[in-house]
Amino acid sequence: MNALDRLAATITARKGADPETSWTAKLLSKGPEKCAEKFGEEAVEAIIEAVKGDRARLTSEAADVLYHLLVMLAARDVTLDQVLAELEQREGTSGIDEKAAR
User: Fold this and answer.
1) Residue 93 gets which letter from DSSP?
2) Prediction pTM value
3) Segment 25-29 mean pLDDT
């Protein structure tokens, strides 16, 4: 199991935790819309660091983006395994072809 799998499992386990003792539970208790908003904020921060060219800050912000993406998915009961299955289904398909098929 890799770090992303462990993180996804931890987020799932925290869904029913006390929001006073778990940041993940606190985010989830605010609903999917708030989780999506937080993901967007973190994505923007990652974009800013990418433009600046600060690799260390970009790495840190990218970790935040992955965490908040998984929280947002959990808020809508979408699992990391489902996302990975979607990626596997797309594997070997040109991005241009995949986009045109939507």
Assistant:
1) S
2) 0.88
3) 97
